[in-house]
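BUG: 3D viewer hangs when loading the predicted structure for this chain

Environment: internal workstation, default settings.
Expected: structure renders.
Actual: progress bar stalls at 90%.

Input used:
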Amino acid sequence: MKITDINGSVTLSNDIKMPYLGLGVYKTKNGEEVYNAVKHALDTGYKHIDTAAAYFNEEGVGKAIKEHQISRKDIFISTKVWNSDQGYDSTIKAFNNSLKKLDMEYIDLYLQHWPVKGKFKDTWRAMETLYEQGKIKAIGVCNFLQFQLEDLMESSNIKPMVNQVEFHPFLTQESLQKFCKNEEIQYQSWFPLMHGEAFKIEIFQELADKYHRTIAQILLRWNLQKDIIIIPKSKSKMHIIENSQLFDFEISEEDMFLLDSLNRDLRMGPDPANFNF
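Structure tokens produced before the viewer hung:
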């Protein structure tokens, strides 16, 4: 992945360009709160917004995008089908509901939120149908481990283009990263700042001081240098701007290795292999 500036992107396996920096809106309230967060991000230069049906804020996201001066075609929007809506017919219905709430004619990236056992293959068939109809530019998954990806791909016509997973220095899942890279499945991270726990860790502060940066900037830049798409969540205009200031410094190989070596297989969120759907 070539890192250039805030406008940079990666090319997915189907040649669609996906911005490598986006705004996540998990737990951002619908209405004014999410509207303002999206507006601040777009004003700052972000071109990628990540939402989900389960975030209950698609209306606010759509309104902010529709009312912004940036053209819709220049903004990359991803949303997700929730677990209770999985299955073929229900996924089609859920997608149409999301499209209506966002007030858009198409979605750039549609994702399965979790690998719901016994349903994720039917959900994927529905997503393939929507993709083939041109209603989605790219399709992918969230929280799929290697065995789940292999199971899905065994019976699918189209390979997932993205896998959005929990990723931070204490949970690197190197083997899953390598598998996705070999299969041309773009890795994307959630909880890159460890659900806020990163700000309490001394070694991160030492690195931030060394580079005259914030902890958030160090960890987000580390993600990018590992070819991973980032969607840091924030409601604060200051933090949204700060999280985008990643392109005028580079983490050394030595410090990249240091961050890589911190893995503890420690999850801040649920385990996809043992999750009560």
